[in-house]
Write a structure and sequence with these properties.
Elements: H1 3-8, H2 10-29, H3 39-48, H4 66-71, H5 73-78, H6 80-109, E1 113-118, E2 126-131, H7 133-151, H8 160-195, H9 203-222, H10 226-231, H11 238-263, H12 272-280, H13 285-295, E3 301-304, E4 310-315, E5 321-329, H14 334-345
Antiparallel strand pairs: 1-2, 3-4, 4-5
Helix pairs in contact: 3-6, 6-7, 7-8, 8-9, 8-11, 9-11
Amino acid sequence: LSDSETSKDGVAVLLLSTIEEYKKAMPALKFCRGEGWESTHWAQLFSLLQFPTKGPEAVTRENLTLQHFLDKADLLIDKMDDLKTLHSQAQGEVTLREALHQLKVWGLDRRFSLVTHAVSGKRGGTVSLIKEWKDLFTEVADNQNLVSSLKDSSFFLPFKDETEVWESTLSTLADRLTAMNAIQRKWLYLQPIFARGALPQEQPRFRRVDEDFQNVMAAIAGDSLVKSFAQTRMRPTHFTEMSAQLDLCQKALAEYLEEKRSMLPRFYFIGDDDLLEILGQAKNPEVIQAHLKKLFAGIHSVVFSEGARHITAMKSIAGEVVPLREPVAVTEAVEVWLADLSESMTR
């Protein structure tokens, strides 16, 4: 149509005007696609575009069509910035929602990797121990970083309560896992030692911690979900107290071993486990034979009298036998008779 014809044709003018309005409104439609939107976002959209929500003309998500948007072309143009903000908010919340869903799945699926461990001593039995600690610590740290990143989002507010619950759960979990890792390592070292009857004065203390530790591990074996470990009700200082008691046992053990080494410096040649075995079975010939070559260079074994009450000779690895001038009595005081044996070698 020419300009003169257009000016005379009201219908053409109306059509061109409407088309121009649609053209201006079209960019706003990309903000109204509703991908990942929740009901709150749709409610905001309906409010911005003034869609009727009651009565026979009510617009719902189910009957919403392109025509509804075209009928509100003027509002699409006027509210474009608000629609863009709404779209950005919805997309940002999708990211947060997916992250929280990821945490939920982890909380429902992640279980402790456990291994059955035989308990030393007369009572015997087994206890479940946690393994693959490194993976566990890494996952918890990654989840803590994820929660921290959620709090930095400008769309965090609708998820504040749920995120804070996860933040508290993961913090508790990290603290308890760190404490339990240390407790398990100490228990593994001390349990066989105390099971052999070492340090009678410390036995009651260790028995209490041992029972407490095995009860905790039994609870973990009963419900192996990692998240449940953080939700188990216990005193805030429970693990701190357990660790402190094990430290006292370990300190007493170290002082005991140092005392024995000061009495016989040759004990510095062997490790704690070997020394404890010698001290605990001072009159056992097999144990003595196994460790003598570590304590005395050149001696492969010794010869015992009948009943293993005395050492009468020493033997080299080549089988050479050297009788002792005076037999060395084997008593419970292992540091004493080993010192006597050392002295007898030089006579």
